[in-house]
C-alpha cells in the first residue's frame, strides 16, 4: 500500500492527463496532485475539436476544467508551464521558469505530435495542421476566408478536418492516397464512404500522390499531383499521423521505443514514474486516439493505491460521425480466425460487417446509420452468442434482430450504458433530465455523457426527442426557386385550357407556329429529347466514378435549370394538351418526373431549415421515384418520334 500524503505530478493537461489527475485525487483525500500543461488555455477536450471546427459545439463546450496557478482545492493544482527536465535521482521536475517541483509519483501524459509530411512547399503560409486548439482556431479563421481547401491525409482526423472546413461557398478536396478512414475497409466500404463524403461536399481524390504544394508570394495557390493535375486552393491542411512525445522520458533515461515503454500497470522503467495515453507503448503497441488512454488510467491509478489491475491492451476503435452518416470500426476487426458477414447497399449508403468467432461477436464495421448499434454493442461487451438464424437474416437484410423489435433508448433498463466513454447509464440521464436538463448542452454538462468522443449523442438526441441538423448544400436558394417555378409550370400545364388556333387575338400567327407548324414542332420535340438526356446526366454523375468533374451540388443546380427549361419547351411543344394513349403516358411520366424532381429540390434546398428526423428518408424515396421516371423518358420519347415519322 502506498504511503499517504503523497505529492503526485501529472505532466500533460489533455483529456487523459486530466482524467489521471482526477482519479488519483479522488482515491485519497490526502494526495496533492499537480497538473502541468504547456498550452495557454484551460484544459480542453481534444476529441471534440472536430465538432468545434464544424460548428456543432461552441468553444465553451470543449472545456474540461479551469487552469490556475493557485487553487482553492488543496487536492489539485493546475499549472500553465512546460516541464523541461525530469530529475529521477532527486525525484523532482523542473519547469521552463527553472522552478523545481518534488514528486513521490510522476505520471507522464504528454500525448503525441502531428507528423509534418515531407512535401515541398509544406512551409508556405496557410499550410496548417489539425491537432490542438490553437490549430483549430487558425482553421476556423481560414474556413471563412478560403475558397479552396486541400486536406492531406484520409484517416479519421483528415476526414473530420475536411468535413469541418466545408462551407456552402468553398470547395474541399481530400487526398486518399491509399485508403479512406482505415486500411481494414474493403473496396465496397471505401466506395460507400467516398460516396457519403461526396454527398457532404468533399471531393475525394484517390491514388494520385502530391508532388509539391505550389505557392506565390509565400502563400498557397494550389497542390500539384503526380498525374499532372493542379488543384487550385488557398488553404492546405495536413493530418498525416502522429508521433509519441518521448523527449522528456529519453532525456531522463527512461526506456523508450516508439513510445515510452510501460508494463501492465503502466509503470515505466522507473517504478515511481508512470506513462499513459498516446506517449505510452504497451506490448509493442501505441495508440493515436484518446479512448485507450482513458482505459490505461484505471490500472495506473489502482496500482498507485497499492492494488493490481493489469492492463491488457485496447481495441483500436475508430469512430467517425458526419451529417447523417456515422461510421465506426469497433472491436477486433483484423482477427484472421474470425468469420465475417457483410451487408452492403451502395444506393442506400450502407455498409455493415460483423466479425464472429464461435457465434460470439468480436468486432464490427459500419458506415451509415444502424438502429441496432446499441444491441450490437451489448452483445460485443457481454459476449452473448448470436443465433444462426440472426446471422442468416443479416446476410439478407443487414439487420440481426429485425423480427424482434429493437428497444428505443427510453425503453432500456436504468443500468443500460448509453455513454461508454464515461459509463453514463440511461437511469443517470433520465434523472438529469427530470432535474431540468432538457437540452443537449445541459444534459452533457450535467452527466458528462457525449463530452469525450460524442458518438453517443444520437442516443442522447433520442432521449431528448431532439432532431438532428441537416447539411447545407450549394445554390440552395436558386434550386429552391427553380423547383417552385417548375411546380407552377406543371400545374399550368395540367389545369390550363389547351391552346387552339385563333382562339385569342393576342396570339399572333408567328407565335402560333410554335404549336402548329411541323418544322417548329420538330425543333421543340428534339430540344425536349436533348434536354431529357442532359437531365439524366446527374444520375450518371452520381453513379459513374470516372465522371467526377465538378461538384455534385453544381450538377444539381444545372439539373434544376434544365428541368425548368424542359418543362417550358414541353408546354410549347404540346400547346398544353395532355394527349391520348401512349402520348398521354409520355406526358404523365414527364409531369410526374417534374413533380418528384421538384419535391426533391425543395427538400434538399430547405434541408438546413427543416429538422424533421425523417426528412432524409422522404427525400431518398422521392429521389428514387424521380430517377426511375427520368430514365423512362428517353424510351418513351424515342417511341413517340418513331410513331410520328413512321405511322
TrEMBL record:
The keyword Membrane applies. The chain crosses the membrane at residues 479-499, 519-536, 557-576, 582-604, 625-646. Residues 330-381 form the NADH-rubredoxin oxidoreductase C-terminal domain. Keywords: FAD, Flavoprotein, Membrane, Transmembrane, Transmembrane helix. Its cofactor is FAD. Residues 417-465 form the BFD-like [2Fe-2S]-binding domain. GO terms for molecular function: oxidoreductase activity. It comes from the Bacteria. SUPFAM superfamilies: FAD/NAD(P)-binding domain. Residues 7-299 form the FAD/NAD(P)-binding domain. Belongs to the FAD-dependent oxidoreductase family. PANTHER family: NITRITE REDUCTASE [NAD(P)H], PYRIDINE NUCLEOTIDE-DISULFIDE OXIDOREDUCTASE DOMAIN-CONTAINING. This is NAD(FAD)-dependent dehydrogenase. It comes from Simiduia agarivorans (strain DSM 21679 / JCM 13881 / BCRC 17597 / SA1).
